[in-house]
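Worked example 3 (structure in, sequence out).
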């Protein structure tokens, strides 16, 4: 039919997400996106408007896919913040050691490249990191005697550890080393919350 898209937009975003994840925003060419999605430039532009907009759609897909897993892990331990953090970081280790997806993390890689991103894309990366921090902060609860500032700092620390796991996996750190980082982080959370 005339004017009707003859391809699956969600599948195109999925494939573009993988290319951005593997190569990073700056190194991902339109030719690479066209090859991965099977779309011509005109279809790519007609559907997504720009590489930048397609990138934000890929970030949103990535955030939604793994955000649900993070939520479930954190919710599984409502009375033990250290266990919740360990489960949260465990989701990351499972993802980054999964052989069917690229190494590392699209959000971590995008944060590293933030100076090459448009203002809108840089803001989206920040939003995704802030969402992680908010999830973790909520899971920490309100332990008696622990000031809000400490809880905020602990949540930021956990997000930093989460992102560092992705970076470490990208350079080939073995799973036992990643799991040791998870255990040490959970221990630090337990000590901080006393």
């Amino acid at each position: 039919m005339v004017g009707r898209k003859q391809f699956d937009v969600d599948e195109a975003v999925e494939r573009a997400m993988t290319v951005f994840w593997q190569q990073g925003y700056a190194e991902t060419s339109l030719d690479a996106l066209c090859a991965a999605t099977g779309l011509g430039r005109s279809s790519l532009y007609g559907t997504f408007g720009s590489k930048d907009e397609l990138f934000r759609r890929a970030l949103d897909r990535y955030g939604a896919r793994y955000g649900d897993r993070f939520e479930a892990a954190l919710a599984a331990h409502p009375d033990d913040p250290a266990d919740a953090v360990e489960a949260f970081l465990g989701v990351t280790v499972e993802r980054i050691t999964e052989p069917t997806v690229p190494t590392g993390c699209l959000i971590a890689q995008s944060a590293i490249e933030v100076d090459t991103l448009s203002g809108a894309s840089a803001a989206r990366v920040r939003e995704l990191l802030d969402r992680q921090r908010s999830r973790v902060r909520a899971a920490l609860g309100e332990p008696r005697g622990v000031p809000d500032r400490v809880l905020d700092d602990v949540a930021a620390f956990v997000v930093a550890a989460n992102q560092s796991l992705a970076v470490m996996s990208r350079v080939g750190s073995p799973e036992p080393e990643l799991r040791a980082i998870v255990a040490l982080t959970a221990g630090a959370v337990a000590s901080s919350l006393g």
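Notes: Residues 51-75 form the longest helix (25 residues). Residues 43 and 143 are 53 Å apart (CA to CA).
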